[in-house]
Design brief:
heterotrimer; A mainly alpha (293); B mainly alpha (324); C alpha/beta (240); A: mainly alpha; 11 helices; 2 strands; globular; disordered C terminus; B: mainly alpha; 77% helix
Chain lengths: 293, 324, 240
């Protein structure tokens, strides 16, 4: 069983980054009741941000990470004002098509501006490898994991203790009652959306030194985030965190046993299975969505 | 908008066009409009009438394309047979998908359908032994009607027109029949429909099956017309969005809408291709940006599409005239 | 001789008991009112009778035939129609089309269904609104629409959830008269109602629920004097 430690550590490293993508997605769903189909595109934008900051300004990706938080927050805020605001209370279908439209537009904007070529961000410490328990790991991966965990923890603390976080949770509980209590729900939605985008943008920056950057790069990660979010129960942040690890475990185990080519089928089928059997997630109350709550 | 006259005019014009127009480029555009219009109409049966918004319909289109392609290349049988096989397989899969996703609403259904088409994309592009994997299938050209090896684009116009009329008639049935009324009730409010004795679950499955079979038929004809099946194209989410977009632009839940939407989209696409021909992949990017923005704008400001918008204008004019 | 029979129905949600061993019968042509404070389990009982919830225990039957286990649409076709407390008209359809959906459960002929729907739309007083979209109606008009839609399915038992809730004072007498007329026409009606004046005036018999259990069952004057009912419900309602 020499591979076991390697598999476990791989799972943790992957799961940490998936978690950061997933918590933003589930936060937006929990508070706004919107499934953001453009989430992956914001991840992709974060990756390009790190890439260009490195290539043009020689910023280390971990410096860019600090800058990316306010930048993605601002991008999120602007996209809320411009695109999301009019449809927050619209029907599911309108919301779906709006975010799908946003996704297509952003993806292809990147295609037109930066071509479909995969680009690479190679820092000088890229090839540095750390050995843990006989297994070798890329240092960028470990740093990305550590920072992703720190950011996720920061988000949890923000939600738990800050005034805005409490207001966001109250709105997630009952948007009508919150509005009656004098909460400016429009502002809450803007902040929620922007915070969610900031998370995924930061995740993009962290992924850029590890994975190739191209216009549809967000899709594969966000697909996994959807799986995690649904598995954890849409809107449940702690659930998403655990589920992100579970999905990473499935992926790592899948790559190991059936090969990378088919592992995607494995988690897609898992995803469909969960949607069909327990649409409210493993920890959520079943049927909550169907009952319109 | 349940008048048949405008649709009759549109289809008769399309049928007569090959007698007048001889320009290959225009005829090619017409064939594509009719194929995409039929696919959008098929999507509309599930998405517009039944309210089952799918973004995985390219799965059924791909099944049709692959069925036609494989029946021709592997067994050297007629693509018409391939079309029938594709439609049946899609219907059977539609039955399973419809049954399993029956309780899923809104974004959950969308996510499930996307995941489903992604599964088929992976199978189509990786199962080298059967589907030739990511290289796709070149469909050989064997002259004759039975083998669908037709060089004359006029004949293609008539073949695809028949498909379009079939798709239109299916929607017309939903506009006027008992089952159609019931299906629309399910879309508006499933629980309320159930409480009135509407067999909602069964109707939704039936709508998805019909929609899947028709979409597969479009895929089969498309594969024969284009002569190549590329898994990354026929199973793409972009293609699913294209069907939905055409229906939304034309008018969700209207019989003629998908055809108008497809006409508009295809025209814009061809125009951009002619205009920016040299830029290659970037061109695709430009019209997809237009797609994305059109989607955002349409669902927000013109929810009933062109058909709804034109209908509203006409109604206003009629009432204005009545008042003077 | 009972038409609708509810026998030992219980339903729990997690740890919360919504219905606990509820039993009563409704005779043909009877108009029974169900009262109880919020959370007493009235609406849950309706959901169970109409098949939207499955009871943990107990059986509901119509004319001796078991309804429990059937799907909501099948139960409707057997002859149990309902309205919703939180109104659910088909927003995007016209009033006439809304009612047609109900009528199409009893006829395959669309034209016949339209005639029947027009008749019912007139009967509930919405003739002028027949071509209007449901989303443009007032709450009172929506209540009438739901009533017409339910009637179009030709029910043997009609379940009304809150006939007068959310409706302005002037409209209440008209709606009450409508229910009276239906009952006079021989229809069996089960009605949940918060307005005590309405329910005591209209019902032949009242079943009172509290915390998921039946605490009183009998003629209105008897039930309204019942000590437990007064404590649980009326005391609150009258002192407020």
């Amino acid at each position: 069983m020499t591979v076991l430690p390697q598999l476990i550590v791989s799972t943790l490293l992957l799961g940490g980054i998936y978690a950061l993508i997933a918590v933003g997605l589930t936060l937006i769903f929990g508070v706004m009741r919107v499934v953001n189909f453009a989430h992956g595109e914001f991840l992709m934008l974060g990756m390009y941000l790190a890439l260009f900051a490195f290539a043009r300004l020689h910023f280390d990706p971990y410096v860019t990470l600090v800058l990316s938080l306010p930048i993605s927050f601002a991008v999120g805020w602007a996209s809320y004002r411009g695109v999301m605001r009019p449809i927050v209370h619209a029907s599911h279908n309108v919301q779906v098509f709006t975010t799908v439209g946003l996704s297509i537009a952003l993806q292809n904007l990147a295609l037109v501006l930066w071509t479909a070529d995969a680009r690479f961000l190679r820092t000088d410490y890229y090839a540095v490898v750390v050995r843990i328990g006989g297994a070798a790991f890329n240092v960028a991966q470990i740093v990305a994991f550590a920072l992703a965990v720190a950011l996720t923890a920061g988000l949890f603390a923000f939600m738990r203790w800050s005034y805005i976080g409490k207001v966001m949770r109250a709105t997630a509980q009952d948007r009508d009652a919150s509005a009656l209590m004098g909460i400016d729900t429009d502002r809450v939605y803007a902040i929620t959306w922007a915070v969610g985008i900031a998370c995924v943008g930061a995740a993009g920056v962290l992924l850029a030194p590890i994975y190739p950057v191209y216009p549809t790069a967000g899709l594969q990660f966000v697909l996994i985030a959807y799986v995690a979010v649904v598995l954890g129960g849409l809107g449940d942040m702690a659930g998403a965190l655990i589920a992100a690890l579970a999905v990473a475990a499935v992926e790592v185990a899948g790559s190991y046993t059936i090969g990378t080519a088919w592992k995607e089928v494995l988690y897609l089928l898992l995803f469909i299975g969960i949607l069909v059997v327990r649409p409210a997630g493993l920890f959520g109350q079943r049927g909550a969505e169907a009952l319109g709550t | 908008m349940k008048a048949v006259a405008p649709a009759a005019v549109v289809f008769v014009c399309a049928g007569l066009a090959p007698l007048v127009v001889h320009d290959a480029f225009l005829l090619d555009s017409l064939v594509l409009i009719l194929i995409w219009g039929s696919a959008a109409a098929a999507w509309n049966v599930a998405g517009g009438y039944a309210g089952q918004i799918s973004l995985g319909h390219s799965a059924f289109f791909g099944i049709g394309a692959y069925a036609a392609g494989l029946v021709v290349t592997r067994w050297e049988l007629s693509p018409w047979l391939g079309l029938a096989v594709g439609a049946l397989v899609a219907m059977a899969i539609g039955l399973v998908v419809g049954y399993l996703s029956n309780r899923l609403r809104g974004p959950y259904f969308v996510l499930a359908t996307i995941a489903f088409s992604q599964v088929l994309l992976i199978v189509g592009s990786r199962w080298r032994g059967f589907t030739s994997g990511s290289e796709g299938i070149p469909v050989p050209f064997r002259p004759g009607f039975w083998t669908l090896g037709i060089a004359d684009k006029r004949v293609w116009v008539w073949i695809t027109l028949a498909l379009a009329v079939l798709a239109y008639l299916l929607q017309l049935y939903l506009d006027r029949s008992r089952r159609g009324y019931q299906l629309v009730a399910v879309r508006e409010d499933e629980d309320a429909a159930l409480s009135l004795g509407v067999p909602a679950r069964w109707l939704k499955v039936a709508a998805i099956c019909a929609s899947a079979a028709l979409t597969a038929a479009c895929g089969a004809l498309w594969a024969q017309y284009i002569g190549f099946v590329d898994p990354f194209y026929v199973f793409s989410v972009d293609l699913s969005v294209k069907f939905a977009l055409a229906a939304i632009i034309g008018g969700l839940g209207t019989a003629l809408g998908p055809f108008l939407g497809a006409a508009l989209i295809t025209t814009v696409e061809t125009y951009l291709r002619a205009q920016f021909g040299g830029i290659g992949t970037r061109l695709i990017g430009i019209y997809l940006i237009v797609y994305g923005c059109a989607l955002i704008v349409m669902v927000r400001w013109v929810p009933h599409g062109l058909v709804g918008w034109i209908g509203e204008r006409l109604r206003r004019r009629v009432t204005a005239r009545a008042e003077t | 001789m009972s038409l609708l029979s509810i026998a030992g129905v219980s339903k729990r949600f997690g740890g919360i008991v919504a219905n606990q061993g509820i039993s009563f019968d409704v005779a043909p042509g009877e108009l029974v009112g169900i009262i109880g404070p919020n959370g007493a389990g009235k609406s849950t009982l309706f959901e169970i009778i109409t098949g939207f919830y499955h009871p943990d225990e107990g059986v509901v039957s119509l004319d001796g035939a078991r309804l429990t286990g059937l799907s909501p649409d099948a139960i409707c076709r057997r002859g149990v129609a309902r309205t919703f407390q939180k109104l659910r008209p088909f927003q995007g359809l016209t009033v006439l089309d809304n009612v047609m959906v109900g009528a199409l459960t009893r006829t395959r002929d669309v034209r016949h269904a339209r005639e029947r729907a027009r008749e019912l739309v007139g009967k509930v007083g919405l003739a002028e609104k027949a071509e209007a979209h449901a989303r443009t109606l007032s709450t009172g008009q929506r209540k009438r629409l739901e009533l017409a839609r339910a009637l179009a399915t030709e029910p043997r038992v009609l379940l009304l959830d809150e006939v007068t809730g959310g409706v302005d004072q002037r409209t209440i007498p008209e709606l009450v008269q409508l229910v009276r007329d239906l009952h006079a026409g021989g229809l069996t009606v089960l009605v949940i109602e918060h307005n005590m004046r309405v329910i005591t005036a209209v019902a032949q018999r009242i079943v009172a629920l509290q915390l998921g259990e039946v605490i009183a069952d009998g003629p209105p004057d008897q039930v309204t004097r019942d000590r437990r009912v007064v404590e649980a419900y009326l005391g609150l309602a009258y002192t407020q």
